[in-house]
């Protein structure tokens, strides 16, 4: 017996919030539902190590709140994303993060590639983050041992395998990331 064909549907952030908590991550961009399974251990280890690297810098330079998914980030109406790791800029009147609605924008969004997410991360999410004005979007490719850095209004990423310099708006100094060392510590 053949599976029934479902009519195309335009998904909204409200629709996604109604889905069951079944271990999958649900996002929607421009009406398209993105479903990814729970990440594997190596993926989570990369996020953990990136958090440990970024957290002291983000705190010291007060450039936002560093958080991770699951999250409900609605940078545009009816578009809901859950970056693996992100640095959120809070609304001017907010002094302490408490709710997803406190987020005014993202200084950084990070996705660690998985075989099941590569197309979405490199195409759908990348275009969305650029359009939404996310200052930097990093795609961490553990297999290739590099970070693709995207900024708004650029057609090609910087592919960084040795080092990365990040200085978000408001930071007094840049963070120098030893990309090769990061991957060596993670993988070797």
What does this structure look like?
By secondary structure, this protein is of the alpha+beta class. It has one domain: tt1808, chain A. Helices cover 26% and strands 31% of the residues. The chain has four helices and twelve strands; from the N terminus they run αββαβββββαβββββα. The strands form four sheets. A six-stranded mixed sheet has the order 3-6-7-8-9-10, sandwiched between helices. Strand 8 and strand 9 form a beta hairpin. The longest helix is centred in the N-terminal third of the chain and has 21 residues. It is globular, with a radius of gyration of 17 Å. The termini are far apart. The N terminus is likely disordered.
Describe the secondary structure blueprint for this structure.
Blueprint: H1 13-17, E1 25-29, E2 32-36, H2 41-61, E3 65-68, E4 73-76, E5 79-81, E6 85-90, E7 103-112, H3 118-131, E8 137-141, E9 146-150, E10 158-160, E11 163-166, E12 175-178, H4 179-187
Parallel strand pairs: 7-8
Antiparallel strand pairs: 1-2, 3-6, 4-5, 6-7, 8-9, 9-10, 11-12
